[in-house]
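INTERNAL AUDIT FORM
Audit reference: QA-55
Scope: verify that the stored structure record matches its stored sequence.
Auditor: D.O.
Record contents follow.
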Amino acid sequence: MIVSTHQPFFAPYPGFFVKAQRSDVLVILDEVQFPRKTTWITRNRFKNDQGTLWMTVPVHRKGRGLQKISEVRICREGNWSRKHLAGFRHAYAHAPFFPDHLGFLEGVLSMDRRRIVDINMAIIRYVAELLEIETRIVLMSELPVSGKGIQLVLDICKAVGGTQYLVSRSAEKHYHESRFRSQGIRRISFRDPDLVYPQLWGDFIPRLSTLDLLFNCGPKSREILFSQYRSGATSRE
């Protein structure tokens, strides 16, 4: 059984979903420490007529000390949700499949969601379903594990019955193969996709949120995202 882990990013980039698709179980690390600095957990990139469009979900940090990701609360003050929806409408008004997702965006950005992990998981599960990813997605908080670093990953693999651990090739150096081998777990890798697909507004910008792909390509998004793996570019052996 192939296991992977990932923090709950906001509207993740395509590589997140490639990792999910290549796994049998994806464990979302909602119980690890929330980063003190800028993080993909609260923001991501989209595209408008000016180029890169950053969208950030404001969260409470001041006076909270060290927080687990699962503890981080969304700021309910202000009208950021309305501004984000307006930004989406302006940027993607001419994207052929944007109307298909507008209702979801209006719901997921509503102010009744209190934790950043809730809004992020709603988006992750929505995109995974549209991409027909059947991988089991589990929250770390649902498992009897704790700790940090490689030992945490090893404990997660054991908790879900994993025999292989999947990492991106760019992150291999952080996961020493000998540690996994000593526990009877094989470390395997995949490469992030180098996607090019139709976008609005001029030159192609890579590694945007996967929502950009869905807005522009609709039902063809799955084929575009996973086509490079048909010939066995990565393997599950």
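Auditor finding: record pair retrieved intact. Residues 2-229 form one domain.
Action required: none
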